[in-house]
Amino acid sequence: MRGVTEASRPQAPPPDDDVPLLDELMPWSVAPLRFGRAWVVAPDLRTLRGRWDRLVAAEGGEREALFRPSRARTTGTAVAALPGQRTGTGRFAHEAGPCPEAVRVLTGPFDEQWLLPDHRLLDTARPELWRVAGGPQVFAVEQGYVPGAAGPPLLVTGALPEGRSPAGRPGRIRPLFRRPGGREPNLAPGLLGFLREHCGRGRPVDPGQWLAWAAAAAVPSPAGCRVPLPAGPEAWEAGVALGRELVDVQLRGALTGARPRLPGGRRPYVRAAFPARPDSLAYDPGGEVLSVGGGLVSPVPEAAWEYRVGGVRVLEQWFARRTAPADPGSLEAIGPAAWPQEWTSELLGLVTVLALLGAREPDRAPFTAGGGPGRSALRAAGVLPVPDGARRPASVLDHREEGPGGQFTLV
Asked: Residues 164-190, buried b or exposed e (16+ Cβ, 10 A)?
C-alpha cells in the first residue's frame, strides 16, 4: 500500500489578462470565517452537546480556560446574536442554558460538520453571510491560489462555508444571491443580458446557468480565479450541461433530487470492519482498496484518492480532521469513544463524490481554454467595471435582530 503520491499537475491555459476575474463577475465576496476555537465545530452532534455541557458546568477560571479566550472573544464579551439564530447575547460567563441547535457548515472541501451558532463563541462569524443563507442560496467558494497545485479553483456548497483554503491560502466566499429567498443575483449588472445575447440564442440566462458555467470553466491565476466566457451558443450549452453535473454532485443531488451514485459494481462498500479508533489511512491502487486503520473500503477509484483541492488530498484531510489528537482535558478532547457508523456512511458518500468529480475533471479542458469575449468586450457592453454598490452587502433586514444583552439592533 502507499500513502502520499505525486498528483498529476493541471495544465492551465496561458495567463490572459483579458479573461475576466470571478471578482468582477460575482462582485460581492466575503473573507473566510474565523471560529477562533476548534471546539465549537465537530463532525457529530453528540460531541458538540458534550462540549457545551462540560463548559457550562465549569465556573470562574476553569470556564475561562476551557473557553480558550482570544482578543476577539472571552467569557465576558457581549455580542449580538447571529441573524436567524436564537442564542444568548449576555456574557458567556453567566451562561447556564441548554446547548443551542447546531447548524451544518462546510469546514473544508466537501467536509460538512456541525457548528454551535453562538456569536459569543466565534471570533469572526461574518453575519452578512448568515443573513442570506438558506433556501435556494448556494455559495461559490474561491480557493486561494497555490502555484502549480492540483485541484479545482472553485467549489460550490449549500451549507454556510468556513471558506478557508486547505493549503492555508486566503480564499473568498461568493453567495449566488445578495438577498434571502434567491433574490438579486450576485452578478455584475448586465452580465446575464450580455450572455443571453452572446450565447443564449436570445433566451433568458439565469443565475444557476451562470454558476454551472463557472464551475466548468474556472481557472486559477495569481490575480484570482478567472472565468473564460464561451465562444458561442454551442460551447455555452455544453459547458452549462457539464457544470450542472459538477454542481449537482457537490450539492449531493440537490438539483436533480437524486443522490450521487457510481454505476453498479463500482460503488464503494466496507469489506472489513473499521477498528474502534483508526489511526492511519492508506491506499492500494492495484486493488482499489482504502485502508482505514486496517478496515477496508473498496472499490475506491484512484481518481477519488488523488482528488485534491489547493494541492491537498481531500480524503486525507477529511480523515485527519476526525482523528487528530487533542490536548487532554480540553474541550477538543471530548469526542466519540469509538468511530461512529455515521462517519463510515459519510466516507462512502465522499468517495462517491470525489470519484464522480475526478472522472469529469478532464472534461473541463475545452471550457477553461476560453476563446470567447473578454474584459474588453464586457467593458464595451457596459458590464464592466461594476459599480461600487455591487461589491457591498445588500440591505436585507426584514426583521429585528437581537443585539448584546437582549437589546435590538438595526442593520
From this structure: bbbbeeebbbbbbbbbbeeebbbbbee
Please tell me the predicted confidence (pLDDT) of residue 3: 41
Grid coordinates representing 221 are 491565476
Peptide bond into 299 cis (omega under 30): yes
For residue 221, give the amino acid letter: S
Three-state DSSP at 107 gives strand
Determine the pLDDT at residue 15: 44
Q: Looking at residues 86-97, what average pLDDT do you find?
A: 95
CA 48 to chain centre: 20
pLDDT at 24 > cutoff 50: yes
Going by their DSSP bridges, the two strands 308-309 and 312-313 should be labelled as antiparallel
pTM reported for the whole predicted model? 0.92
Alpha helix segments (H runs only) across 226-310: 233-250, 302-305
Q: How many CB atoms lie within 10 A of CB 374?
A: 18
**Is there a contact between 278 and 318 (Cβ–Cβ < 8 Å)?**
no
Angle at 128 between CA 124 and CA 131, to 5 degrees: 120
CA atoms within 13 A on the CB side of 323: 19
pLDDT for the residue 16: 67
